[in-house]
Specification:
single chain; alpha/beta; Rossmann fold; 2 domains; 7-stranded mixed β-sheet; 3-stranded parallel β-sheet; 13 helices; 12 strands
Length: 359
């Protein structure tokens, strides 16, 4: 099992990154480092609304941190709704409005390369967020380690299936084929499943990460193999995992262990209820605030050094934590957890929470 980084360590990393990041009007050198940094505009361009995280967490947390670091700065937030052309238009719009830095989670990692080149030609820094942009070098990349996410959720499932001596093979529901982060998660999943000795029955790259498409595909696999031959499902995020679970329920078939990623509220409730086996805790506050710190440093003309390099881009990658019924009470719902017990343990889930000792 790969090592986990504690929340304290992640916080310490943010503290180091934030050092010297107070706003200053004395911008000097580097992309984005021109004009009055105290009153700069920063774009925050997110990819879709299929995952609830962007509207509920990423955008508010990024805005709050930017407000703390630079009270006079303005954040221009846009969501592309899974439309790469729309995201290109949004990027053009914020550039026309004079932004000095763009934080972007690309809909299409390949298409986003043109956004990077256009912005950089105007001396605007581009920080890739959550999903990398392999085709061209962004100024910085901030994310949880996506390849490790895939390896962790898959290995957790593999270990569980071996421990329970489950019969049958594994379905693999990957993320969007246009998302480079999904490719990294897929690579991590393969690293665990390929060496496990368990059979991969079939796999699917889910267009746009859409849960309904994942559900449709899994429904077809249930018809093909029968629920009894499917021992587990490695789903790349909570949305596709939820789609897989819905497919088994619609087929009136027992739900096998299903993975996830993102620690969405609905996923936490499914884990408590026993419908979903695991998810990934990657506190969005960590990456949102890290991206704000990086953007603010670029505004000052002081580009931060990367802790590592990915796709030729200076990068900061945080380590996530697998969440199952065994640790959900401490990791997700305990002090400092991403979710509140009152939100997860509603009347519908109260008995299940009590059984796990979550209160």
């Amino acid at each position: 099992m790969l090592p986990f980084r504690t929340a304290a360590a992640a916080t310490a990393a943010l503290t180091v990154l934030a050092a010297g990041a107070a706003c200053s009007s004395k911008a000097s050198g580097g992309a984005g480092g021109s004009g009055d940094a105290k009153n700069a505009k920063v774009a925050f361009l997110m990819p879709d609304i299929a995952s609830t995280r962007y509207e509920l967490y990423d955008a508010p947390l990024f805005k709050a941190k930017m407000k703390q670091l630079c009270p006079g700065c303005t954040v221009l937030y846009q969501n592309a709704g899974a439309d790469a052309s729309k995201q290109q238009q949004q990027a053009n719009s914020v550039l026309a409005q004079g932004v000095k830095a763009i934080v972007i989670d690309p809909v299409d990692s390949a298409a986003a390369a043109s956004i990077v080149r256009t912005a950089q030609s105007q001396k605007v820094a581009v920080i890739a967020y959550d999903r990398p942009i392999p085709a061209t070098k962004a100024d910085y990349y901030v994310s949880f380690d996506n390849e490790k996410i895939g390896a962790l959720i898959a290995q957790s499932l593999v270990d569980h299936l071996k421990q329970t001596k489950a019969k049958g093979g594994i379905l693999e529901v990957n993320g969007s084929p246009t998302d480079a982060a999904a490719g990294l998660i897929k690579k991590g999943i393969h690293s665990a499943v390929d060496s496990s000795g368990l059979k991969r029955l079939a796999e699917y790259d889910t267009p746009g990460w859409e849960p309904a498409k994942a559900q449709d595909w899994v429904s077809g696999q249930i018809s093909k193999f029968g629920g009894g031959q499917i021992a587990g499902v490695v789903a790349a995020n909570d949305g596709t995992g939820g789609g897989a679970i819905a497919a088994f329920k619609a087929a009136d078939s027992p739900v096998p262990p299903v993975t996830g990623n993102d620690a969405e509220l609905a996923a936490a409730q499914r884990i408590v209820a026993g419908d979903q086996y695991n998810t990934i805790s990657k506190p969005i506050k960590i990456v949102a605030e890290a991206a704000a710190n990086v953007a603010n440093q670029f505004l000052q003309g002081k580009p931060p050094a990367g802790q590592t390099t990915l796709f030729n881009t200076p990068s900061q990658l945080f380590t996530p934590t697998v969440v199952t019924q065994q640790n959900i009470g401490t990791v997700l719902l305990g002090p400092g957890g991403a979710l509140k017990v009152s939100d997860v343990c509603t009347q519908t889930y109260a008995a299940a929470c009590a059984k796990l000792g979550v209160k």
